[in-house]
Amino acid sequence: MSTACEHLVVDQGVSAKTPEGCEGCIAMGDGWVHLRLCLSCGHIGCCDSSKNKHATAHFHSTEHPAIKSFQPGEEWGWCYVDEVMTDRVS
Ligand SMILES: [Zn+2]
Ligand SMILES: [Zn+2]
Ligand SMILES: [Zn+2]
What we know:
Shape: globular
Distance between the termini: 23 Å
Helix content: 10-25%
Largest sheet: 5 strands, antiparallel
Structural class: alpha+beta
Number of strands: 5
Order of helices and strands: HEEHEEE
Strand order of the largest sheet: 2-1-3-4-5
Strand content: 15-25%
Number of helices: 2
CATH architecture: 2-Layer Sandwich
CATH class: Alpha Beta
Bound molecules: zinc ion
CATH topology: Herpes Virus-1
Oligomer: single chain
């Protein structure tokens, strides 16, 4: 199966809008498990292990295709459109 994905190779050098945590959870006063950074706009959302799943919700509301982990020491990325994971986003 082809894993070609043009979304993950493009890193526009976005900076996190809310480096302190998930934007949606902070607004709700809620908590999260892990954080994901949107490669299109710098939105910080929580992962699918978090109850609010804001990173996935952000994809559905904006169609921004790709995220990378916002966890310290984690460099992997994920494309929602192609459902492709990469070890490193560069
Ligand atoms: Zn893709
Ligand atoms: Zn959240
Ligand atoms: Zn975004």
